[in-house]
Amino acid sequence: MTKRAKTLYGIGGVLALLLLWQVLVWIRNESAALFPSPLSVVQGLGEMMESGVLLEHLKVSLGRFAAGYLTASVLAILLGLLLGRSKRVWAAVDPVIQVLRPISPIAWAPFIVLWFGIGNAPAIVIIFIAAFFPVLLATVSGVRNVEPVYLKVAHNMEMGRSQLLTRIIFPTAFPSIAGGLHLAIGTAWIFLVSGEMIGAQSGLGFLIIDSRNTLRMDLVMSGIVLIGICGLLLDRAVRLFENWVGRHWGMVGEK
Q1: Using CA atoms, how far apart are residues 38 and 194, in angstroms rounded to an integer?
Q2: What is the largest CA-CA distance in the chain?
Q3: What is the pLDDT along the chain (255 residues), one digit of tens a residue?
Q4: Cβ(14)–Cβ(38) below 8 Å
């Protein structure tokens, strides 16, 4: 499918969703304060943009997300490349990872606040936890699935450890790593908003709670729509990074 066709299908899907939304508004015939229409949501976005509130909270959320997600991704990839090469170490670490991984980052929130205080740090730590495990497990899986013949060729060519990682293991494992990055970006973004709803005084999550408290459901829905749009753009950013790495290493074509 061509890029133009994908774009047209995407636009068609968005228009269909907006039409369904408007039809539900007509069917329910509720007050705009209870079930805002697409037009009222657009007006709410315009109102927040004009006042500068939207940009302020968006910048805070994106800054927190970048700090937590990038730190978690880099550390998880480096650690995953090392753990994936050692079967014995991974056999010892894997049970610990599997115990910690299912625990929601929000469950750690009381301890995180006690340990890191109030401010940006708790939200960043929650994002870090949410992003770390998907990337780590995807990296380890990718490393462990490297074809043995590639390792034999590297051994015959007398490659050093650094060359083995950068020329053989990382390029081969990268498709799996990219899948982990995509999964982690959605998970981390969800928990960022959740974390901001709990105790933060800024960010998109706080904006939604604050709008709810003032009974501005149009602004609540505006925040929800903006969160979805940002999630889509962040996922596309990871895809662009994936394509760039793929072209650099000659592994994958543009998607």
Answers
A1: 24
A2: 73
A3: 677 777 787 788 888 888 888 888 888 776 666 778 888 888 888 888 888 888 888 899 899 899 999 999 999 999 998 898 888 888 899 999 999 988 888 888 888 878 887 778 888 888 999 999 999 999 999 888 887 776 777 676 767 677 777 777 788 888 888 889 988 998 888 888 777 776 667 888 888 888 888 888 888 888 888 888 888 888 888 888 877 777 766 554 444
A4: no
Of 78, 83, 64, whose CA–CA distance to 130 is shortest? Answer: 64
Torsion sign across C-alpha atoms 125, 73, 151, 167: negative
Rounded to whole angstroms, the Cα distance separating 117 from 120 reads 9
What does the block give as tokens for 42?
């657009």
Class of domain 38-249: mainly alpha
Q: What is the chain's alpha carbon radius of gyration, rounded to the nearest angstrom?
A: 22
Q: What sign for the dihedral angle of Cα 196, 199, 200, 201?
A: positive
SS (H, E, C) the chain: CCHHHHHHHHHHHHHHHHHHHHHHHHHHCCCCCCCCCHHHHHHHHHHHHHHCHHHHHHHHHHHHHHHHHHHHHHHHHHHHHHHCCCHHHHHHHHHHHHHHCCCCHHHHHHHHHHHHCCCHHHHHHHHHHHHHHHHHHHHHHHHHCCCHHHHHHHHHCCCCHHHHHHHHHHHHHHHHHHHHHHHHHHHHHHHHHHHHHHCCCCCHHHHHHHHHHCCCHHHHHHHHHHHHHHHHHHHHHHHHHHHHHHHHHCCCCCC
